[in-house]
Amino acid sequence: MSTVSAMNFGIQGIHKGMNGLRQNAQQIASSNTQNDITSDSPDIDDVAEPLIDLKLNALQVEMSAKVIQTASEMIGTMLDIKA
C-alpha cells in the first residue's frame, strides 16, 4: 500500500467517524425530547446504543488520525532518504 492511499484511508476514516459522531449526538439529544415531558431523564434504552457507538466512532477518528500521522512520517522518511 502506498503512503498516499494510506493517507486517503485515514481521511475517509475520519470523515466516517465524524459523521457517526454527529448521528450519535443527534440520537442522544433527541431521545430526551421523545420521552414524556414529565420525565426528567431519558430512557436508558434510548441512549445506551448511541453512547456506545459514540465511543466507537471517537476511536475510529483517533485511529484514522494515527494512520495519517504514520503515513506523513513515512513520506518524510522517504524524502530524507531521496535527498
Question: What report would you give on this structure?
Answer:
It is a single chain. It is built from two helices and no strands. With 83 residues, it is mainly alpha-helical. The protein has one domain. The longest helix is centred in the last third of the chain and has 39 residues. The relative contact order is 0.20.
Features:
83 residues; mainly alpha; rod-shaped
Describe the protein's topology.
Blueprint: H1 3-34, H2 44-82
Helix pairs in contact: 1-2
Mean pLDDT: 85
- Rg measurement, Å: 19 Å
The topology string of helices and strands comes to: HH
What is the β-strand count? 0
Total of helices: 2
Unreliable stretches: none
In short:
This protein has one domain.
